[in-house]
Design a protein that fits this description.
By secondary structure, the chain is of the alpha/beta class. About 40% of the residues lie in helices and about 15% in strands. It has 13 helices and 12 strands. It is globular and about 60 Å long.
């Protein structure tokens, strides 16, 4: 780990976010994962199932925290969010809770479940290309046209603090934790969880997990700065950002001990194990940490407990059947992004 001059989220900011979310976000449990990963001699393996969060993923934590910190007059103008899916649903839900309008800009390749979720929660949907830049460009146009406020998906300290409340809960509920695995997309969740874990339990190891088709944190750590990948692809559509955010990367450098990449082939077996044995529906992005453990890319802690953060479960029935190879699946192709 290295130090950085970029200001980092503080424990006070994390606790303030947790206070704002009290009574709004679900405090997701820690569930023993003995049925999907055999227990080790030194400690058990647990999962933190953020698919049980309102909106089906961790994203409400950051979105609601961001809206709660806006001045009421600014919030009343409405909000705009670029998103591949889960952030869009979270912003739609947060906006509905505050009674303000929301527009979300999603890719033309968005999964039906994620688009339907945002629509069901009251957001106006716009589709713009297939890349992160396409979505952000259209979102900024909407902000200029309407005066609405942009809700960034990950590259903002308030978003990081909100997502980090999952890490606060984790350590408070399991003080014996010695290893935490967390998914890496644009970096908001991994940055927030790593910050919370290290500030509360400095000796706990934090490992980021990203898809082999989008190794943006691996590349960034090798070069010492965020790197634009140009193109990403894979099943884990929620983790296909082409670049780690600047603010998240600063937190990664300070608090993340290692990063590993997982091949697509490892994701369906992990999803199936969660479904069959724990009755948890995970999208590919949500199952990636468990896949890393099951594939032996990371060894469970020998001197304490291990926790896999499961980031979400927003996948529709046809998509789930397709990924798992069921005969009544939709046959939809793997998602891609740029």
């Amino acid at each position: 780990m290295t130090t950085t001059a970029t200001p980092l989220v503080t424990l006070d900011a994390l606790r303030a976010a947790a206070a704002a979310l009290r009574g709004v976000a679900v405090r997701t449990p820690l569930l023993p994962a003995d049925d999907v990963v055999p227990p080790t001699a030194g400690g058990r393996v647990w999962v933190k199932p953020e698919m049980l969060q309102r909106g089906g993923a961790f994203k409400l934590r950051g979105a609601y925290t961001f809206l709660a910190e806006l001045p009421p007059a600014a919030r009343a103008r409405g909000v705009v969010a670029p998103s591949s899916g889960n952030h869009a649903q979270a912003v739609a839900l947060a906006a509905r809770l505050f009674g303000v309008p929301a527009t979300v800009v999603m890719p033309t390749t968005v999964t039906p479940a994620k688009r339907a979720g945002a629509e069901r929660l009251g957001a106006r949907i716009e589709l713009a290309g297939t890349t992160t830049a396409d979505r952000m460009g259209r979102a900024m146009e909407l902000v200029r046209e309407s005066g609405a406020v942009l809700v960034p998906p990950y590259d903002h300290p308030t978003i990081i603090a909100g997502q980090g409340t999952a890490g606060l809960e984790l350590v408070e509920d399991l003080p014996t934790v010695k290893l935490v695995l967390v998914p890496v997309g644009g970096g908001g969740l991994s940055a927030g969880v790593a910050t919370a874990v290290k500030l509360l339990s400095p000796g706990t190891r934090v490992v980021g997990v990203e898809p082999a088709g989008a190794p943006k944190l691996t590349r960034a750590r090798a070069e010492g700065r965020p790197v634009h990948l140009g193109q990403t692809k894979g099943l884990a559509d929620g983790l296909l950002a082409v670049e780690v955010g600047t603010a998240p990367f600063a937190h990664h450098q300070a608090y993340v001990d290692d990063v590993v990449v997982v091949d697509d082939a490892a994701l369906p077996p992990a999803m199936r194990a969660l479904l069959d044995r724990m009755k948890l529906v995970a999208e590919p992005s949500g199952a990636i940490t468990l896949a890393a453990l099951r594939e032996g890319l990371v060894a469970p802690a020998a001197d304490g407990d291990t926790v896999c953060v499961l980031s979400g479960g927003n996948i529709e029935w046809p998509g789930l059947c397709s990924v798992l190879g069921a005969p009544d699946g939709s046959g939809a192709p793997a998602a891609s992004g740029r």
